[in-house]
């Protein structure tokens, strides 16, 4: 079936003023101003009430943390004290049931905001949660969203001088065996794939150097991406200097991670030389503006990193350091904090859209998503401008960011409608809200 998505208010694409044609899940034609499709179409979708952008791509999250949003034990704290407050609560209460509901809620929120591809960094493995990756694959397939599922890991706990409790880490052999299992079972590098797997040791202060190096070997064997937190706080710099006698980027290089398979979460505290080194090796950086502001972690040097050659993407980060899972809101926050970092002329709505689409796709190693152009997957987010917040807006694309769009009216993934009239087609949102809310109560019981 050839579908003409016809005459949008505006579209984030060149030469597609009259819309696009979708066939077999991909974009096969952009229809320029004054033109008609070059071949007959089977159906037409009237997009005259919509502004269309590429589906947003989220490159860093912690889905299970939806259970501890605005948690009384953790609010008004920076990263390390925030983590030490929440680790014991997560250790006691993250079960397969709560993990599934946390994943389901986060994916649903992301989808409703206009996100079509999501990466989650899950690193917490209390007893009984051995099949965390399997659960996330099931939930992503249920919603129809693309996902890079990262098999995260921690093997340094409090007894080793690390931050997490002993009960949520695993030994190296267990971690590496499960990494191979999930890569063999789920990782799909083909064009248009719905599920890919990446390996994601959590951070320098929670994993051993051997685990970092063995993850590189597995990534080369299975042709997958590598992900970790790096350069998020000054505390992390101090930890690396104390334990490894070097800065985090030097440690990354010692572990064999300075290559284009890698994308990093946060990437805030880099020197000029480190920015150049990361760019030279095409190491991607996921900018997490909302979380960085909530935890007062600092400001990512997005413009310098991108100029040096690093792909820059966007992520909402954990739902306990962001307190929601709305990537469209993250786009607006990226504009605001980067204008504060640089200036009003240097960072435009086109920059933040690029980070949330093409840049994020590059971080995930995907060239089949991230833009509205012929040959790309038909992953699209549609927004209306009928709310009061948009009244008087002159530039429709800029209005999505400046006026604060936060919910897509429609979302298409691979040519299929995943959100219609603001609601996901495969999810009962009211039921999900009730079930998730009830499950989250146990995370407050110890207060």
UniProtKB/TrEMBL annotation:
Keyword Cytoplasm: no
Class of this enzyme: hydrolase
Annotated InterPro entries: Amidohydro-rel, Metal-dep_hydrolase_composite, Metal_Hydrolase, MTA/SAH_deaminase
Amidohydrolase-related domain span: 51-415
EC number: 3.5.4.32
PANTHER family: AMIDOHYDROLASE-RELATED DOMAIN-CONTAINING PROTEIN, AMINOHYDROLASE SSNA-RELATED
Similarity remark: Belongs to the metallo-dependent hydrolases superfamily. ATZ/TRZ family.
Protein name, as recorded: 8-oxoguanine deaminase
Species of provenance: Stappia albiluteola
